[in-house]
Backbone:
């Protein structure tokens, strides 16, 4: 089984050159000019196209019981959406409730994915309580190939007490695990929500008022203090605003180990979308909320200058008609989440690279290589070199089209980028040498995706 991709322009964070890539079995065997195809090999002409390493989305929700309902995707719909959008590996948040057994949670999430995914996958293990039993189980889970935890400083039912946060970070430091964290102050959110509702302010636009930038900045500051005292490596998920970035960078400058993720939504959408009339704003409700537009240049510049490491989606699909509507008379009941797994790469390329905000190398770095490095997948994933998995995206920069919910694989009834122009898209996508997407359509096999075991690296 071999595949020869000829004459494409290979782009990694540090290189850009035209060459042929020979994939044999699951890995890249050779990269050179004028390679001769082995007998029986499929040959793909990539002249005039870019070849990127398979993109990695380090923040995805597929199975999720949340705010009285369930996220709508399963591994079949989500992995198809991921692949058509150029994402060949995703990392899902394994999120048992506080009352649930942690190990059983891990088994449940694994069972939802194994044999059912078209793309490769891993998990961040959600730590929603910390006691002796949980600690033992976390040690076992790490041995089974999970090298990152997830903690929530927001949300009742998921959130940790401070003592638990401290012990989770100490354990992570001991094991070399990185701790990803949702940083918002839960107490402030609850109090602000109560005040807004008491004043009769119930519409989706109030979601922002209940979670202003200071609430997120406090969450980041809180995590940074605990990271400083424990020495643990941390990763701030979905950072949305300047105030939060300032806290993270100040901590980094004093030696705190912190990587930062922003989302494609925060780079391109702003809080006015959540203020749309007739409850349309509910489509744009997520946490932290979409921010004032002035934050977008801060985030783009942060990416360009390497202050922010990754661009993810926090893909979390809830239908508008049957689920977002749960918060029709009370914004606190709108299920939080904006799906975007299929669109991240096309939007980042069109509104980032083509718009001159980031260069091609930063694009690849922030959407693939950095996630691979931070989460223990590199150099198997996140780069194009002999020996690496043959996860490749042949990207057609001449393609012109528009985003529409009607052509999405994710199982949700709207798209926040509806009608947006895209300039370029993945035309062919491979996962470990298998072609999974041709001409922008899923052509692969469900079940090809594999659980990728990772080893701790943050000692
Ligand atoms: O609004 C969001 N972010 N929904 C998904 C759950 C989470 O907070 O990560
Ligand atoms: Zn999330």
Residues:
């Amino acid at each position: 089984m071999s595949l020869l991709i000829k004459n494409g322009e290979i782009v990694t964070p540090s290189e850009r050159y035209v060459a042929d890539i020979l994939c044999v079995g699951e890995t890249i065997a050779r990269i050179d000019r004028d390679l001769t195809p082995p007998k029986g090999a499929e040959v793909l002409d990539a002249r005039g196209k870019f070849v990127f390493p398979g993109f990695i989305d380090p923040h995805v929700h597929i199975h999720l019981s949340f705010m009285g309902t369930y996220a709508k995707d399963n591994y079949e719909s989500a992995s198809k959406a991921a692949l058509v959008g150029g994402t060949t590996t995703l990392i899902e948040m394994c999120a048992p409730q506080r009352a649930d057994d942690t190990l059983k949670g891990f088994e449940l999430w694994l069972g939802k994915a194994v044999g059912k995914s078209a793309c490769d996958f891993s998990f961040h293990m959600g730590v929603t309580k910390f006691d002796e039993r949980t600690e033992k189980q976390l040690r076992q889970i790490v041995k089974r190939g999970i090298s990152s935890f997830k903690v929530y400083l927001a949300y009742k039912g998921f959130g940790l007490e401070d003592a638990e946060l401290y012990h989770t970070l100490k354990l992570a430091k001991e094991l070399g695990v990185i701790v990803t964290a949702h940083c918002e102050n839960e107490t402030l959110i609850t109090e602000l929500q109560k005040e807004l509702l008491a004043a009769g302010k119930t519409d989706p636009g109030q979601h922002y008022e209940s979670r202003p930038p200071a609430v997120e900045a406090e969450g980041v500051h809180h995590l940074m203090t605990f990271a400083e005292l424990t020495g643990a490596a941390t990763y701030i998920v979905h950072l949305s605003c300047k105030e939060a970035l300032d806290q993270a960078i100040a901590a980094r400058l004093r030696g705190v180990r912190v990587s930062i993720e922003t989302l494609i939504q925060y780079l391109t959408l702003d809080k006015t979308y959540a203020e749309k009339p007739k409850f349309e704003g509910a489509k744009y409700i997520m946490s932290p909320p979409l921010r004032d537009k002035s934050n977008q240049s801060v985030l783009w510049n942060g990416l360009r200058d390497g202050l922010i490491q990754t661009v993810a989606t926090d893909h979390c699909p809830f239908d508008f008609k049957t689920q977002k509507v749960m918060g029709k008379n009370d914004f606190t009941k709108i299920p939080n989440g904006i799906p975007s797994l299929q669109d991240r790469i096309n939007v980042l390329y069109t509104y980032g690279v083509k718009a001159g905000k980031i260069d091609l190398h930063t694009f690849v770095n922030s959407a693939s290589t950095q996630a691979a490095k931070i989460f223990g997948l590199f150099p198997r994933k996140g780069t194009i070199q002999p020996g690496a998995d043959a996860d490749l995206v042949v990207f057609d920069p001449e393609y012109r089209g528009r985003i529409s919910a009607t052509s999405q694989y994710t199982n949700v009834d709207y798209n926040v980028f509806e009608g947006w122009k895209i300039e370029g898209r993945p035309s062919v996508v491979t996962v470990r040498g298998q072609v999974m997407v041709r001409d922008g359509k899923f052509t692969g096999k469900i079940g090809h995706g594999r659980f990728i075991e990772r080893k701790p690296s943050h000692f």
Notes: The chain has a mean pLDDT of 98. The chain has twelve helices and 19 strands. The radius of gyration is 21 Å. Residues 139 and 390 are 31 Å apart (CA to CA).
